[in-house]
Write a structure and sequence with these properties.
Elements (H helix, E strand, L loop, with lengths): L3 E6 L4 H12 L3 E7 L11 H5 L8 E2 L2 H6 L3 E4 L3 H14 L2 E4 L6 H10 L4 E4 L5 H16 L6 E8 L9 H14 L3 H4 E2 L14 E7 L5 E9 L2 E9 L3 H14 L5 E3 L1 H5 L2
Helix pairs in contact: 1-9, 4-5, 6-7
Length: 269
């Protein structure tokens, strides 16, 4: 089988450049296109030169439709509005769409689900092996430790430029904890505490968000009981681990029937 042609959207950003470098270094895939928003100063620039891997002969475009039409898949770590638009284009082209974008609303997710009728979509709050293994462990721990005995708190920290909170990874971990306790996260999550809040509600899943500096991503799930605490953590030290996971997801999705999948499907958890 020929190398899988992948498009990077948001190609000029930090994650976009990381994805381009990862594609360049990974056997079995090639850069088939690079897309940026209309009016971006990088339009027309060679994507490889921008990412620091040398000239690849792939110019950054602001028109996704023809780029998607000649590709096998797209890697997308952009923003929700753009991701929904790209999902529609992926459905038209009937290609793989790997979504690492976070902050999607229920309406965004519904539109992505609709696009998955014709595109093979892998969507996850985090593409790393370690985080998805952590989620599986959190689910198991939450199932084993009764809510009347153990409280659950999800703590996350990211760099100062991150625009959504809690992070997609924090929500992924919160959903894993909720699944372990067979409850709906939306009914039990606590996102804010300020002033006289009263006692902590039994069975709640709390979130705490920190922002600052250049932190790529740190997540901990604390299960706090009387006299003991269990802390399950993951620290991301390099964005390339998310890029590697996204490429793995794209390769897994190649030739698979349309539908909405997760990294747990990709990793077999």
């Amino acid at each position: 089988m020929s190398d899988m042609g992948l498009v990077v959207v948001g190609a000029a950003g930090r994650m976009g450049r990381t994805l381009i470098r990862a594609i360049h270094d990974t056997p079995g895939v090639r850069l088939a296109g690079a897309v940026e928003r209309r009016g971006a100063g990088e339009i027309g620039t060679d994507a490889g030169e921008l990412a620091g891997v040398g000239r690849l002969g792939v110019a950054i475009s602001d028109d996704p439709l023809p780029v998607f039409a000649r590709a096998d898949g797209v890697l997308d770590f952009t923003v929700p509005a753009a991701t929904v638009e790209f999902a529609g284009y992926a459905a038209q082209a009937r290609i793989v769409h790997v979504i690492g974008t976070t902050g999607c609303t229920a309406e965004d997710d519904a539109r992505i689900q609709t696009a998955a009728r014709h595109a093979t979509i892998v969507k996850s709050g985090n593409m790393s092996l370690g985080v998805n293994l952590l989620a599986a462990l959190v689910e198991q721990a939450a199932r084993a430790l009764a809510p009347e005995d153990f409280d659950i708190e999800v703590l996350e920290m990211h760099h100062r430029h991150k625009i959504d909170a809690p992070s997609g990874t924090a929500l992924l971990l919160g959903k894993a904890a909720a699944a372990g306790r067979q409850i709906a996260l939306e009914e039990k999550s606590v996102r804010q505490r300020d002033g006289v809040t009263g006692p902590r509600p039994q069975g709640a899943i709390g979130f705490a968000t920190l922002r600052g500096g250049s932190v790529i991503g740190e997540h901990s799930v604390v299960l706090a009981g009387a006299g003991e605490r269990l802390v399950l953590s993951h620290h991301a030290e390099d964005r390339s681990l998310f890029a590697s996971g996204a490429i793995k997801a794209a390769l897994w999705g190649r030739g698979r029937k349309p539908g909405l999948y997760s990294m747990r499907d990709v990793l077999g958890f």
